[in-house]
Each structure stands twice: as C-alpha cells, then as structure tokens.
Predict the structure.
Amino acid sequence: MDVLLIDPPYISLKGMSIERGYHVGLTSLAAYLRAAGMDTAVLSGDLLMGLPAHVLLLNANVRKYAAGQKQYSEIIDNKEHFVWKNLADIVRRTQPRIVGISYLTPLKCSVERIAGLVKEIDRSIRVVAGSFHPTFCPGEVMRNGDFDFVVRGEGEVPLLRLVQELRKDNPRWETVPGISYRDGDGMVRHNPDAPVIGNLDTLPFPARDLVLNCDFNSHRVHSVSTARGCPYTCTFCSDHRFWGGRVRRRSVGNVIEEMRLLRKTYRRIDYVDIIDGTFTFDRKYVQAFCGAMLGQKIDLKWRCTARYDNLDEELLQLMKQAGCSGLYLGLESGSARMLESIDKKITLEKISRVSEMVYKSGIASATSVLMGLPDETMEDMAETLRFMRKIKADVFDVNSYIPLPGNVLYDAMSEAERQQVDWRKSSYKSLDSYFARQMSPEEFGRYRSEAYQIANRVRRKTLLRFAAHRFFPIGKIFKK
C-alpha cells in the first residue's frame, strides 16, 4: 500500500462512543490520492476501542467525559493496551510506504504514540503529520525523530507530490511544495507553501469506502464539507488562519450531488453533519442549498454549524423544511466584555433573541460555552452562568479554554508558557484544564462545576421536550 491515513483514537480513550465512523478530511485525501492511482486506506482510531456506535447526547454527561481525561492518559502510557496492538496489526497487514496522521493539538500524545509505534514496526515507513498542529508548529513536530515529514495547510497537493517523489529512486524533497523535511545533513527544511485548490468542485467526493474498520450499518452519521475556511476571526480559533484568511466554497449543485450519492449508497443514514466552520454565514448559499434539497426531494436529515447573527425566523423555517434537524451555536460567554475581547462580533441581546427563535422552531440546538479564557474574571464567569440560566437552549456544550496554535490568544503566550502545557491533562473537556490568569484553579473549578450542573438541568428538561422523538446531537458536540 502507498498510504495509510490514520485518525488517532481520542474520544473513545476517554470512554465516549462516536457517531461518525470516519474523518471526512482523511477520506477526502484518500479520494484524491486514489484518483491519481495511489493505493490508500483510512483508519478510524476511535473505532478500535469497540464501543457502541451511538451516544444519545441527552444521555451523555459532559462532566463524566471530562473526567475521562484520566483514562486517556493511562491508555496513552500503556503501550500494551489493546487499542495500540489493534492499530499495530493493521499497519503490519497493510504494509504502507507512508503513514499519514491527522494531528490536532489536543491529540498530541496519541499522535506521538502512533508515530513511535509505526517506527517500531518498520523504520522504513515514512511517517507524515498533517492538519492544524503541524501547520503552525512544523519545527516542533520535526524535533521528534519519529516524524519524517510535515504537510502544512491543505493536504491534497503536497501529499500526492510526496508519494510521487517517494516512488523515485532519488527523491528530491525540495521540489515538493508545502512540506517540512530533513535534508541530508539532518537540518529541517521548510519548502514554500503549496498553492491552494481554487475550485473545490474539481475534487472527488470523500472515499468513505476506503475506511478499513467502519460498519456503516452501525455508524449511520455521515459528514459533508461545503467550504474550506471561515470568515470570522474569533481569537481562540485557528480556522481563519489555517485556510489563509479566505473562504472557498463548493457549488450548491456539487454538494447536492454528494448528498444524493450518500442517499443512494448507504442503506440507513441517521444524519448528515455539515462540518464547515460556519455553514450559515452566506444566506443566499443556505437558501439555494435548502431550495435544492426540497426541489430534488432529497430525504435526508442534516445538521450544521451556525451563528446567531446569521439566523432569523424565515431562514430557520426554510432550513427545517429542507431537513435541518440540528444546529451547533457558539455562545462562548455570557459576558459582553468577554465577547468583545474574543472578537465574537455579536451582542448578548442578539443571542438571547435568536435563541428564542431557534427554540420555537423545533430545530434542536447545542450551544457551546467556553470557560476559563486567559483574561476572564470571576465576575465574567458569573455573568456566563446567569446567561446560561436565561437563554433558550436544548443542550449546553461546556468547554474549558485551551491554547491552540494559530490564533491570537496563543500568539500572546510566552514560549515558556507554551512548553508548560501538558496535553495528557489538557483538553476542551478535562477537569485539569486551567489557563485563566485572574482566578485560582479552585475558583475556576467551582464556576465550571456550576456550569455542568446548569447543563445537566437543561438536558433533563430537553429529555422531556423531545420525549416523543429520537434525538441525536449535532456531531460536533464534543470538541477535542
């Protein structure tokens, strides 16, 4: 095999099941490589734990998931755990020339465990790291000798060129755009960025059939991406910078064709998650998409990311008619001061008013809350708790702030502070995450615990509200 692409186990190591059985970015890469004649496959690490396919959000306890960070750390440190043995068996069976690993910052320990495991199996296998963390921290990644290459930014063109060069007797890594590598003297070199793909419609649809270990009769939630990039500049998020500060979008017709293919290919589909940074930012696009779903009578339920300031009653009604059954919304803070400081570009009054519209529409919503920002005070957190008690929401996704490379808040950290982050303990959902400067860990923990309590009370009310319906969350509910 030319390339085995791995989505590292993470959520499952904390004791939670997953809805979706594949990483849409990796299946997109696999499709691109296959179209160029490369033998490739995708491995979904979270499926290796063998947990049940579905978790009903209303039965999921985010505090319990946060407490699962301890189990994650224990499994990371246990090289004899069956999840690593299962992964190693797949690597031995497929015998890839290249192993590509999707590397998000919170997954650092899992990614490094996989890289070391691959090199123990066969030092000649080239290990490539891609996605957000390697893009923003290529030098750091390359200091680990288990990684041979970093692919920065959009992966299709660099990875294909890398595989093509590897097939040659005398590969010239300096000709491959968008990669970082070691030269003959062991020095790390960073080639110029690869050009981005101008027309996303030219890309093949994700190769879901190349996922090695997914039973799609059990994992019946699928993913679709309509865009690369996000127009917003929230200071805690890296999406805007990762995609070069611009948004490229597939045509509505191209997306609808993929939705029709999903309907035709898979016997049972519970939901399709549209995983864009913000699906609803372009009203005309959303209207055209909904019109096409209705006009072509595509019977699929779908969920998407949204912002309060993109929605109104007319658009919500159209989305619901077209099959929208879930929204993931970013409240983040109930403090006007904090919303301004993170460049959210929205007011609490607008959030409150639109949350009422969403609630009345009958479209289920999951609302993200981000606590413990570096300059957040106890009064800011108290205001968030008060707003959580007031706002209309079906589910609260309570998260702790973590510093992710590629955004404004990370830029403001010193190198010493960055080095002190322990990614065995820190994640969006971990009881040990703590980066707030204006309060003690104990004070932060008390406010976060109260947020969990509010979230659980809202969850119980929503259970009654949706008692007559089978309810699944929007797939992005668990931030990594």
